[in-house]
């Protein structure tokens, strides 16, 4: 009888360490892993015990003469843990032990050398209170800290020390310690990390423990040769294979209705939505549902292009064939054309729309006492948002949040302008997007079996308006007349609303009550950048995409980094010089030019920055519309702040954050009342917040002349320090 081949897993640290090896050695390491998966008993794989190892299951396998892989052999499983030079690999393995946590059933890798803290090191920090002094040993064990590691955790006194010890602390225990350090209670930590129910897996069942959500945070089970080859050959993107347990449980769960996932920038909302799309596509394949599709939609064509590129990277071809990715306006246009819709849909600023407004205002708006800018905003925020088609509907509607009150007689005059504007569009066979959404909804009501979608993923939901949500509710598969189980998976964050639309989903036919979840751990951005970005929007009240408000309390990043660089300069030339100095520092720290992106508020400012950098010999790649960025191309990236939405880079520079640029002075001057002026300011605050959180490790913010008031007040010291440093 043939012996069963062991399951092969790869630890995230193994991929990190492989990525640091010379390219030729990386290729040899990839061949070794493929050989381990397919035939671990093959000739040429020489497993050797590691002398002096604390854990007897630690083995080494030869990559080449000078390099070794550390492999763990236990309970019918092989785990590739680490790859390094021979002596360094052995040194890494000797002090590490692997066990199953009896409370969480998580497979934990612990560096026992942390427990042997030299007394001098402890004494040096004795002046500060231990970071976890307020928690008992029982508390720490309850959140997943191995008992053997308690002395080392007790010795930690600062967040910086906690992060410095991160490589030796099990990943799930480290996440819990970050939450405790952020002020969470033990109960809040367990809830945040989705550990409120006890595991039913025995600590003795090592193979089963490797497949729990907690373990899958750190260990990837290799099932498919093609997927393994893809992971080993392509640039390292951990989001494809490693999900946090709180994310994985959102992905793999069966929901009894629409789901809303909220979370600040960098918490992995889009990643969760993409994995959810893949999971549901896999279910369609398993069920042999030949016609079923998953629709993944978002607000802009740029985001749709980026999501599609990432899904292609994540999914097999068979899975990808079941997923349709399209921004909502594009979907509506295609759908209506197939139904014989004759009108042209106006997207963006179309001169025919401007002409229609001007004509209606000339005839009916001169004696109202309200500006055309106000009336256009009233049309968008009140009439179109509420689907109003006649004057009685307008007279009845509540104008909550509007800064200028209007009496009934004035409303009647205002409606005359609106009616004339709509008549002009009808005459020219033109529609606004909201009108197109309503027409599509009417068709779907008449032909409910028209679509193949079994589920819909909605990304960046905060930028969708009420009519968009009503259409999505109509597209979603139904059960008893409402969106059915697993029908809608919606992700968004109102703090990142940059297009000014606002809608309560419950008023648009989407009920997420009891199925709303919030992600609070930021995986992308350093804590220093996160705090800077949050300071930008401090004091701005936002909704929860429904009828309540949202906040950023309890958000925490998992790592630290340099504080954002703030450069306040007196001229564009000085600003460019400061930018170039910062780029060179990033490169000196090992950041590739393709991972550095320069952003500005407008296309003209982006072009000016690109011209300046090209004149100094830099290779520049512009972030194109409707096209995903190809990171294999060398050179800096440049684009508008709006285009960067949904992207991430190791280093982000935001230039020309000047007074009059952010927010644009012309928009402030055109604002007809204080409420609309506030909306303009808050939209640009959100834009600066979003742009800042595209950065993972480094952030540079520069001005030439007077700085924008949107910059956090706390950066005043940074500005002064930056000026003094440059003067020196």
TrEMBL record:
EC class (word): isomerase
Keyword ATP-binding annotated: yes
Protein's name in the database: DNA 3'-5' helicase
Short name of one Pfam family: UvrD_C
Residues bound to ATP: 263-270
This enzyme's EC code(s): 5.6.2.4
Residue ranges of the TM segments: none
Record domain UvrD-like helicase ATP-binding: where: 242-533
GO molecular function: 3'-5' DNA helicase activity; ATP binding; DNA binding; hydrolase activity
Superkingdom of the source species: Bacteria
Keyword Isomerase assigned: yes
InterPro entries assigned: DNA_helicase_UvrD-like_C, DNA_helicase_UvrD/REP, P-loop_NTPase, UvrD-like_ATP-bd
UniProt keywords, alphabetically: ATP-binding, Helicase, Hydrolase, Isomerase, Nucleotide-binding
Reaction(s) catalysed by this chain's protein: Couples ATP hydrolysis with the unwinding of duplex DNA by translocating in the 3'-5' direction; ATP + H2O = ADP + phosphate + H(+)
Single GO BP term: recombinational repair
């Amino acid at each position: 009888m043939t012996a069963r081949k062991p399951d092969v897993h790869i630890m995230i640290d193994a991929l990190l360490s492989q990525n640091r090896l010379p390219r030729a050695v990386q290729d040899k390491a990839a061949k070794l892993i493929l050989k381990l998966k397919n035939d671990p008993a093959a000739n040429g794989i020489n497993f050797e015990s590691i002398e002096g190892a604390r854990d007897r299951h630690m083995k080494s396998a030869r990559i080449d003469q000078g390099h070794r892989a550390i492999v763990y052999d236990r309970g019918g499983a092989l785990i590739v843990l680490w790859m390094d030079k021979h002596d360094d690999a052995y040194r890494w393995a000797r002090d590490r032990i692997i066990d199953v946590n009896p409370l969480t059933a998580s497979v934990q890798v612990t560096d026992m050398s942390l427990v042997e803290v030299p007394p001098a090191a402890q004494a040096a920090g004795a002046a500060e209170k231990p970071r976890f002094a307020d928690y008992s040993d029982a508390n720490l064990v309850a959140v997943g800290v191995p008992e053997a590691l308690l002395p080392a955790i007790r010795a930690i006194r600062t967040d910086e020390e906690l992060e410095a010890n991160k490589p030796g602390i099990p990943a799930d225990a480290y996440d819990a310690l970050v939450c405790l350090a952020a002020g969470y209670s033990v109960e809040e930590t367990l809830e945040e990390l989705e550990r409120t129910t006890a595991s039913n897996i025995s600590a003795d069942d090592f193979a089963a423990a490797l497949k729990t959500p907690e373990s899958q945070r750190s260990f990837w089970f290799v099932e498919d040769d093609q997927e393994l080859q893809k992971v080993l050959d392509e640039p390292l993107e951990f989001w494809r294979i490693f999900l946090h347990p709180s994310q994985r449980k959102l992905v793999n769960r069966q929901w009894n209705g629409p789901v809303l996932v909220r979370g600040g920038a960098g918490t992995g909302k889009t990643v969760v939505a993409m994995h959810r799309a893949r999971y549901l596509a896999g279910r369609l394949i398993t069920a042999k549902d030949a016609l079923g599709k998953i629709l993944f939609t978002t607000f802009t064509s740029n985001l749709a292009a980026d999501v599609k590129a990432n899904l292609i990277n994540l999914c097999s071809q068979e899975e990808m064939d079941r997923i349709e990715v399209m921004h909502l306006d594009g979907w509506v246009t295609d759908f209506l054309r197939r139904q014989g819709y004759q009108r042209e849909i106006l997207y963006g600023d179309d001169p025919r729309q401007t002409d229609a407004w001007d004509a209606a205002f000339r005839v009916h708006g001169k004696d109202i006492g309200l500006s055309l800018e106000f009336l256009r905003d009233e049309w968008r925020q009140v009439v179109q948002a509420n689907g109003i088609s006649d004057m009685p509907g307008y007279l009845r509607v509540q104008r909550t949040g509007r800064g200028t009150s209007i009496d009934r007689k004035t409303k009647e005059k205002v409606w005359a302008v609106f009616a004339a504007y709509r008549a002009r569009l009808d005459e020219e066979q033109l529609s606004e997007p909201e009108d197109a959404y309503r027409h599509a909804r009417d068709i779907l009501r008449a032909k409910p079996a028209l679509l193949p979608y079994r589920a819909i993923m909605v990304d960046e939901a905060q930028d969708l308006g009420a009519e968009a949500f009503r259409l999505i509710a109509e597209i979603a598969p139904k059960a008893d007349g409402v969106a059915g189980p697993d029908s809608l998976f919606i992700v968004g964050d109102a703090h990142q609303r940059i297009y000014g639309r606002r809608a309560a989903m419950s008023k648009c036919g989407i009920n997420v009550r009891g199925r709303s979840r919030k992600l609070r751990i930021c995986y992308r951005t350093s804590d220093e950048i996160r705090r800077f970005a949050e300071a930008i929007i401090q004091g701005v009240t936002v909704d929860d995409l429904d009828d309540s408000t949202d906040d950023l309390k309890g958000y925490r990043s998992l790592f630290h980094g340099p504080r954002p660089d703030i450069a306040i300069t007196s001229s564009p030339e000085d600003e460019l010089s400061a930018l170039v100095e910062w780029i060179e520092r990033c490169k000196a720290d090992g950041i590739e030019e393709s991972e550095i992106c320069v952003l500005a508020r407008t296309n003209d400012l982006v072009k000016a920055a690109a011209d300046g950098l090209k004149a100094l010999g830099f290779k520049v790649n512009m972030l194109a519309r409707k096209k995903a960025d190809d990171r294999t191309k060398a050179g800096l990236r440049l684009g508008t702040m709006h285009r960067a939405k949904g992207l991430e880079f190791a280093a982000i520079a935001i230039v020309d954050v000047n007074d009059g640029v952010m927010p644009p002075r012309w928009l402030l001057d055109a604002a007809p009342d204080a409420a609309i002026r506030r909306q303009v300011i808050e939209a640009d605050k959100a834009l600066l917040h979003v742009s800042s959180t595209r950065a993972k490790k480094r952030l540079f913010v520069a001005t030439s002349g007077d700085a924008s008031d949107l910059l956090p007040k706390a950066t005043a010291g940074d500005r002064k320090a930056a000026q003094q440093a440059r003067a020196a």
